[in-house]
Design goal:
148 residues; 2 domains; 9 helices
């Protein structure tokens, strides 16, 4: 699918490879109330764009208690839950390589101690389980072939 620029303030379809800082600020200030379709596009974008994800986390983190309560009141509870879950999943996935390193060097028990949220996610997510398995297999092949 070819990427395209935003054509209107509410159009965030096909937003891969561009940052959406203005949309995040509009969301936080209540100037943007995304439709269900726009919410899904936003979540899809946040799972692939660490820049925008970290920006959203920073925006939420710097809110004062009053402003955060205002933010929560302005954002649909379902969207807020989905944003929070997306942030947590992406954070966990960013730790996947560290998890694999600990898993290989120290074993499963130590990896579970260091990465309990990621382990919980992996127990439910077959796609991420396959990714861990694939990365481990690649590393084992590389070691066997003396590439690393």
């Amino acid at each position: 699918m070819m990427n395209r620029l935003l054509t209107s303030p509410l159009d965030i379809s096909s937003i891969q490879d561009i940052h959406i800082e203005h949309k995040l600020m509009d969301l936080v200030t209540g100037a943007w109330q995304p439709s269900h379709f726009e919410q899904q596009n936003l979540l899809d974008h946040l799972t692939t764009c660490t820049h925008c994800l970290h920006l959203l986390k920073a925006i939420v983190a710097v809110q004062t208690e009053d402003n955060l309560n205002s933010f929560v009141g302005q954002v649909d509870n379902e969207l807020l839950t989905r944003l929070t879950e997306t942030i947590q999943v992406v954070d966990q996935l960013e730790q996947m390589h560290e998890y694999i390193d600990v898993l290989r060097a120290q074993g499963e028990v130590e990896a579970q101690k260091h990465f309990p949220l990621l382990v919980a996610h992996l127990s439910k997510c077959r796609a991420c389980q396959r990714e861990v398995e694939d990365i481990r297999a690649l590393l084992e092949d590389a070691e066997r072939d003396e590439l690393i």
